[in-house]
Design goal:
Elements: H1 2-35, E1 49-54, E2 61-73, E3 78-89, E4 93-100, H2 111-119
Length: about 150
């Protein structure tokens, strides 16, 4: 009974706060849309793919998310690099690494599955991880900015 007495005010406070935020957001969102202002930077395609990279040492791997690609121009050749976000604290803080696209293992996992693995501390890790199957013809280039 004591637990209910303590949890009830917390639940009511949470519900009222959530309702207030939804109300204010719903009220002002059309105004922001008319002005062309994106207040909350909601980007549904922030993570393009789940990636496994060798990090921090050879023989050790880290889960990350490909966020974009960039071409590094060198004197003799151009190198295609992927910007990989490697979370270090439940997706809030992490490292941004530029990794050669050839060195990235692209597992057959959805973005949601990758987030679940990281947030759970690896407890939801599948027993077997296989790379995505590349169905390419000779001479065909696979674009890196494909969204799964």
């Amino acid at each position: 009974m004591t637990g209910c007495v303590v949890l009830f005010p917390v639940a009511v406070t949470f519900f009222i706060t959530w309702w207030f935020i939804e109300f204010v957001d719903g009220f002002f969102s059309p105004i922001y849309a008319q002005l062309g202002i994106d207040i909350f930077d909601q980007n549904t395609t922030a993570f393009k793919e789940v990636a496994i990279i060798r990090h921090p040492r050879v023989g050790e791997y880290a889960f990350g998310f490909i966020t974009s690609t960039v071409v590094l121009q060198k004197d003799n050749e151009d190198e295609e690099l992927c910007s990989v976000f490697v979370p270090t604290n439940h997706l809030y803080i992490g490292d941004i690494l530029l990794v050669n696209s050839k060195d990235i293992i692209r597992p057959n996992l959805s973005i949601r599955e990758g987030i679940e693995i990281i947030v759970s501390g690896g407890m939801t890790m599948p027993q077997t991880i296989s790379p995505q199957e590349k169905v390419t013809r000779k001479g065909e280039i696979v674009p890196l900015d494909r969204i799964i």
